[in-house]
Design goal:
There is one protein chain. Helix content is 75%, strand content 3%. The protein is mostly helical and 354 residues long. It has a single domain, classed as Na+/H+ antiporter like fold (Up-down Bundle). It has a two-stranded antiparallel ribbon. A hairpin with a 5-residue loop joins strand 1 and strand 2. The longest helix is centred in the middle third of the chain and has 41 residues. It is globular and about 65 Å long. The model has no long low-confidence stretch (mean pLDDT 86). Keywords: Cell membrane, Membrane, Transmembrane, Transmembrane helix, Transport. It is found in: Membrane. It holds the Pfam family Mem_trans. It is a multi-pass membrane protein.
Length: 354
């Protein structure tokens, strides 16, 4: 299949186009509402809390309410492994990109940490869910396990200059999204060993499923979780737009370092993942399918993690630079995410990954 044929199929795919337009339009609505002062300063923060404490945990948990099969299990394992190995790789690979800032105090370290850790949960998960559905959320949630480990260990130690604290370990494991992810993952993995119930699925077919598969055994419980899951994407996008509408672009736009960082974070880091995963798949060392690749790339093409930016501000590690890069990278991600979705869909049509 040639490039232009793949491009045509991408832009005639209603689900892909609608996912892209939904993301952009709802972010623009949030931006407009903030500019018109319909949304207050605290609105984005409130929305963010709702998304992180309620909607995303529900989204993560319900994504595991599906049957387990050898291929999905194999892909999930590979995603988990890459989600850990990739951060180790980036810790070393990012050094040359910011070598020119080595003599400028904390600047090199801050840029490096912010380039490694993106907003995979708040920015990434709603998008992969909108485009790749339950399987996208499943892979994204598993991929985020490594992210949480390194964000609350390596990133904290580098930015604070201190040793790992008990408080950060608690944040790592008592986060609602982490709890929902591990709970869902464990239930998904052991469902073949649990007592079963005979149910009729949506197609009218009788099947035996684990008693806790609430998507089939307890719709009265699954439905409210589904409603909460549905809030994740629109509320996150409204919050992003509202946040952008409350920030002055002048200083950030005049900072060349922030522009350079944005290019590295939104363009280079995803390309590094594509190249390495292509090599690993072709050599059968760590093969991933197209959905897993797409999820990983979108998760890595996100602006810096809010926690990482908070570290920079709290520990006075180039706080202004962190704020500027966060703004520009968010704008860059809004622009580049649709482009990345198109690129990934073209890769899918070309058949580079299974």
């Amino acid at each position: 299949m040639d490039f232009f044929n793949a491009l045509e199929r991408t832009f005639t795919n209603a689900s892909i186009v609608s996912a892209i337009t939904s993301t952009v339009f709802i972010i623009l609505i949030g931006y407009a509402m903030r500019k018109r002062e319909v949304f207050t300063d605290m609105f984005a923060k409130t929305l963010t809390k709702v998304v992180l404490s309620v909607a995303l945990p529900a989204l993560a948990f319900t994504s595991f309410m599906q049957p387990i099969d050898p291929k999905t299990l194999s892909q999930s394992t590979n995603v988990l492994i890459w989600g850990i190995v990739m951060y180790v790789v980036l810790i070393f690979v990012m050094n040359p990109f910011f070598a020119m800032y080595k003599t400028q105090g904390d600047r090199q370290m801050t840029l490096k940490v912010l380039s490694i850790f993106g907003s995979t949960t708040f920015f990434g998960l709603p998008i992969v869910g909108a485009v790749w559905g339950a399987k996208g959320i499943l892979y994204g949630s598993i991929f985020n396990i490594g992210y949480r480990i390194f964000l609350y260990s390596y990133a904290y130690i580098k930015m604070s200059g201190l040793k790992m604290e008990t408080a950060n370990i608690k944040k790592m494991f008592l986060n609602p999204i982490v709890i929902a992810t591990f709970a869902g993952l464990i239930l998904w993995l052991v469902q073949g060993f649990m007592p079963t119930i005979t149910v009729t699925d949506l197609t009218g077919k009788m099947q035996n499923v684990a008693f806790y598969r609430i998507d089939l055994t307890a719709l009265w419980l699954m439905k409210p979780l589904t409603y909460l899951s549905g809030l994740a994407s629109p509320l996150a996008w409204l919050a992003i737009g509202s946040t952008l509408g409350s920030i002055s672009f002048t200083k950030a736009f005049s900072d060349k370092t922030s522009w350079y960082y944005t290019f590295i974070k939104i363009v280079v880091v995803p390309i590094i993942n594509i190249i390495l995963l292509m090599i690993l798949s072709m050599t059968h060392i760590l093969p991933v399918d197209q959905t897993a690749l797409s999820v990983i790339v979108i998760m890595m093409a996100t602006p810096p993690a809010t926690v990482a930016v908070s570290y920079a501000i709290s520990f006075d590690r180039e706080a202004l630079l962190a704020s500027n890069t966060s703004l520009l990278a968010t704008l860059g991600a809004v622009v580049m995410t649709p482009i990345w979705i198109v690129v990934l869909n073209i890769i899918a049509h070309i058949g580079l990954f299974n």
